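Notes from the 1:1 (GR / supervisor)

We went over the backlog. Supervisor wanted to see one worked example end to end before approving the batch request, so GR pasted a single chain during the call. The sequence is below; no edits were made to it. Supervisor asked that the structure be written out right there so they could see what the output format looks like.
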Amino acid sequence: MNPQVDEITEWLQKARNDLLSAQILVEHRPPVLDTAMFHCQQAVEKTLKAFLVWKAVPFEKVHSLPYLLDLCEAEEPDLVSLRDSVEALSPFAVEIRYPGEVMEISLQEAVDALTTAQAVWDFVLELLPPGLRISLGQEDS
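Structure output shown during the call:
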């Protein structure tokens, strides 16, 4: 298989796992919202990185969603429609994982974050060649 296709598939598989993890954590009783938010951020980050690999756009190893969006929007301007909701996930890359200032997260915020992560996933998957969707078990997407 093409090394680029392998790398894209690996990013997308990791993103899909983060998306599924976030969903499970939001639906759990009691919900585990801080970790769900982290996984939503990670799902978006990894999905955007898969898109950049597909477009052969080099990127730094960072967690910055605004930076990744800037690179992605240069290739696909319609991604701008998701910018505000995606940027809202930025604080959940690192800060949420460690003790310190407590971030109060409502169930609605977590549901919105999950909706954003799913929207980014769906948007990027629609752009990818059908062969990549099939390799992810997403042939009906």
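Supervisor's comment: The radius of gyration is 15 Å.
Batch request approved.
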